[in-house]
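Worked example 2:
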Amino acid sequence: MNVTDVIMNLEQRDNLTAAEISIGMQALVNAGMWGLQGAYGRSMMRQIEVGNIMLGRWHTQDAYGNFIPSRFMVKEGTKGSRAYVAQRCGWEWVRDLEASEGPLTGVPEGEYCPWRAGMKDAAQAA
């Protein structure tokens, strides 16, 4: 599902479950859509804060140029990490979120990848 489909789904369907909303928000976070209207950014951040979703796979910037780390750049167990979501919703939910993302394939051109640089470099970049 592309970003437009996700937004249309969130905007036009009245009967979305909490899980469908969270999966949609995870898709927007993964796509780096922090520049959408304020309600989306606040909703994505709230979902991260309560542990329903994780930070995205890649670091990005919000509409104001603020750095947003990837889920791999934050300490496990802190907001935005896989372990934080697992503490609140269980590892099965983490696996469901990751399954909804599709396979982890190549890094987009110019993107920072902690697997290439090593986790030590990822921590320094945060």
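The chain is about 50% helix and 5% strand. The beta strands are 60-61, 67-68.
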